[in-house]
Amino acid sequence: MNIELREKDDERIVFLVEDVNIPFINAIRRICLVEIPKLAIETVNIYKNDAKMFDEVLAHRLGLLPIKTDLDLFTMPSECDCEDHCSNCSVSFLLKEKGPKIVYSKDIKSNDPSIKPVYDTIPLVELHENEEIELEAIAELGLGSEHAKWQAATTCSYKFYPKITIDNQACYNCGVCIDQCPRKILQFDDEKQVTITDIEKCSLCKTCERKCSGNAITIDYEESKYIFTLESDGSLDPVTILKKACDILAEKSDNVINFVMNEEE
After folding, report:
1. Per residue in 172-186, pLDDT tens?
2. In this structure, are residues 216 and 175 in contact, taking their beta carbons and an 8 Å threshold?
3. What is the DSSP letter of 98?
4. CA distance 245 to 1
5. Burial of 72 (0-12, 13-18, 19+ CB in 10 A)
6. Does residue 182 have a cis peptide bond before it, meaning omega lies within 30 degrees of 0?
7. pLDDT tens across 70-117, in order?
8. Residue 213 needs a FRET pair 20 to 30 A away by CA distance; which of 103, 149, 190, 206 works?
9. Which residues have a Cβ under 8 Å from the Cβ of 169 and sit 6 or more positions away?
């Protein structure tokens, strides 16, 4: 397996992976989407709500807030020994505001300073004159397979690595393929021949191939080579999500091997 990094920041990672098959790369993608735990608000106790927004709608908005998550600090509720919520499996947020104002995600106060909403400027509710809101929200770990609010990866996808072949002998140099390419990755060089500027941006749509009257351009893909893209909602950085996904896949593989070996005995 060969891996080459293309992009990396706090919320996005793009890399090439070679010499793997589709079931393997798709397993990583699926685990990133639905099996990585993250914090999300699950329980909301509303003590006062004078706003025009229903309690259920407000609770739903709170549940979808991306929250900074440290997987080393918390355990899954199903694995915790407490009878209800505790500091090992949950974190509490308090919200108490009075209008007129727009209440933002930054107004929610956590009992753990390191655990807070990823973004400060997500609007939650508008309070008019003398309207008040007071509530407690409890966040806990969960999985994307249970609810989308626990989905740490907002986008996780892969595509075949493009392969573009240009037959300069058959090319009429008409420029139709350049004009029709939606990603604008084709251009004329100094010798008036069609060249590729960034092959990795090709979407494999084959528009240029269909529009070429001389059949001079062919769009294909390379076997066992993929461009993998992972974007996070900010609750976990993409590298952490990817590492956790690989650990989960390795654990699943070990479980299968151990099961087979025990059955043979």
Report:
1. 889 999 999 999 999
2. no
3. E
4. 17
5. exposed
6. no
7. 999 999 999 999 988 999 999 999 999 999 999 999 999 999 989 999
8. 190
9. 216
